[in-house]
Recover the amino acids of this structure.
């Protein structure tokens, strides 16, 4: 009898696995994807998120899971090839994760650690991106925009983008440790790459 | 009790059963246990008791007293009529020599009183031939003198052989006295009538009256004992310290119970059992007290009444197989099972 109960428990058992997201290479830094300039030497894209009185930054962060066929490499061309060979879709988990973040403008740029802390705190407060990630290969993609969550969901405006970063393809059930998001760029003149990141998996 | 009942039920469901339940009598010696008739599947059990014979009615004493009274009153005809209701030969057959002596003495006295001297003399000779002793109660000097003369004459007579044939080893009574031999044998007797009685366990006591030397051989062929007689003989043997279930005891139990199949259960420190089939021992066994049902079942198996179930017909075999299968399956599942992984993704504090 005890053995039967044990078997039933085993069969009905599920392992819960937690994977955390880092918006940069370390827990207290941001990816270059969120520190891009509008143009060479121009203002940072994040300035689009300044409030009217320029005392606060008001940003919305959307985090998506993009499902990919197979298990491609991390390079952009490999992601493009994978999505050309099979469907790449944004997983509805069930709703799109979006969190609104506000922080004082005078924290930037000298107190960037505090800003990162505020952003992480706000994202943690918003709850998990998903409680049951897809079993297959996914790319985690985070978009920062000056639009509110509802505005971006209704009508995303490219000019309002603040930043974007993504992970390499992963199978989340097999991952141990945090997943760091990044943007593959060699300098801060990366608006175009940010836009491409935000459009992914659409390439047009 | 519930576990035993369950086991018996499962065994009954698994093991081959006879078409009709086999009737078995159960005789308890000592403390009885509750044993329902269908306690053992395949058997119809019936708890039985040994018959108890009715207490004998002693009419000898009253007859002798009545005859004595008639003799004392001078009523010779009444005396002789009363005494004729007694069978002197039957009294001698059961060893009641004293009553036989009193009866013959009174009969001789009553005949003498009726002036039937020849008859009285014949009675005296019969008395002497039986080797009886004069009773203390007087019946008159002449009669006692007559009887004494007959005894003296009989003692002078040569003895003649009488061959007694009967059940081998049976006990013999000659004129109410134990013979010096067991049947078959030859005894030396004085001329005249003699009562030869034979007693054997398993048989009704039987007697014959013979006249020596006219008859040189007597064959006594007793009848099988009745149930009451067999029960009496069995109890008498046990009372004499003989084993209750030796071959003679077993045969007597069979006669006493009239059961072709009998389970004899004796309660002591343990419960000892014996299965008797057609008067012969088939199986023995012991169990702890309270295990009557299981003991009867084992006796039935060992005695061939029921077929002992094969190993695959036993419930414990399948319980063991199921347990082993469950254990192996559990081990395989435990080793190979990979539970579903549910990943929670987010920014955590």
């Amino acid at each position: 009898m005890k053995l039967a109960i044990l078997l039933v428990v085993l069969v009905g058992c599920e392992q819960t696995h937690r994977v955390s997201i880092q918006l940069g290479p370390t827990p207290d830094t941001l990816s270059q994807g969120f520190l891009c300039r509008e143009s060479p030497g121009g203002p940072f894209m994040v300035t689009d998120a300044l409030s009217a009185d320029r005392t606060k930054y008001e940003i919305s962060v959307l985090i998506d899971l993009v499902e990919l066929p197979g298990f491609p490499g991390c390079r952009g061309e490999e992601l493009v090839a994978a999505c050309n060979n099979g469907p790449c879709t944004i997983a509805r988990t069930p709703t799109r994760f979006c969190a609104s973040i506000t922080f004082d403008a005078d924290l930037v740029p000298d107190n960037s650690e505090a800003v990162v802390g505020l952003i992480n705190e706000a994202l943690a407060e918003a709850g998990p991106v998903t409680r049951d990630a897809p079993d297959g290969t996914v790319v985690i993609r985070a978009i920062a925009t000056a639009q509110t969550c509802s505005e971006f969901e209704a009508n995303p405006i490219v000019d309002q983008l603040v930043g974007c970063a993504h992970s390499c393809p992963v199978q989340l059930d097999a991952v141990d440790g945090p997943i760091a998001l990044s943007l593959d760029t060699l300098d801060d003149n990366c608006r175009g790459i940010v836009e491409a990141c935000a459009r992914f998996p659409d390439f047009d | 009790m519930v576990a035993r009942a369950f086991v018996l039920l499962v065994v009954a469901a698994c093991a081959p059963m006879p078409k009709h339940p086999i009737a078995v009598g159960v005789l308890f010696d000592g403390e009885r246990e509750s044993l329902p008739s269908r306690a053992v599947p395949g058997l119809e059990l019936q708890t039985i008791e040994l018959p108890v014979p009715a207490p004998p009615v002693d009419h000898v004493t009253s007859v002798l007293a009545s005859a004595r009274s008639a003799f004392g009153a001078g009523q010779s005809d009444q005396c002789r009529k009363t005494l004729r209701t007694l069978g002197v030969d039957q009294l001698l057959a059961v060893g009641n020599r004293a009553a036989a002596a009193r009866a013959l003495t009174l009969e001789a006295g009553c005949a003498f009183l009726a002036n039937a001297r020849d008859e009285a003399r014949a009675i005296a000779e019969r008395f002497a031939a039986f080797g009886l002793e004069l009773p203390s109660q007087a019946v008159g000097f002449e009669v006692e003198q007559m009887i004494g003369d007959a005894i003296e004459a009989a003692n002078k007579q040569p003895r003649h052989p009488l061959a007694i044939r009967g059940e081998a080893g049976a006990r013999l009574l000659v004129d109410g006295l134990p013979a010096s031999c067991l049947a078959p044998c030859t005894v030396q007797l004085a001329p005249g009538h003699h009562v030869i009685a034979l007693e054997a366990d398993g048989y009704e006591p039987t007697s014959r009256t013979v006249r020596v030397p006219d008859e040189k051989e007597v064959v006594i062929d007793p009848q099988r004992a009745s149930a009451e007689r067999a029960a009496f003989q069995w109890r008498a043997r046990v009372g004499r310290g003989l084993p209750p279930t030796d071959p003679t005891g077993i045969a007597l139990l069979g006669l006493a119970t009239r059961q072709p199949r009998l389970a004899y259960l004796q309660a002591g420190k343990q419960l000892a059992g014996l299965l008797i089939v057609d008067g012969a021992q088939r199986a023995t066994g012991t169990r702890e007290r309270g295990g009557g049902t299981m003991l009867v079942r084992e006796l039935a198996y060992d005695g061939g009444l029921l077929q002992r179930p094969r190993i695959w017909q036993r419930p414990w075999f399948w319980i063991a197989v199921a347990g082993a299968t469950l254990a192996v399956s559990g081990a395989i599942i435990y080793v190979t099972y990979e539970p579903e992984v549910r990943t929670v993704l987010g920014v955590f504090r």
In short: The first strand of chain B starts at residue 22 and ends at 29. The interface with chain A takes residues 326-327, 329-330, 333-334, 337, 339-349 of chain B (CB under 8 Å). The CA atoms of residues 148 and 253 of chain B lie 48 Å apart.
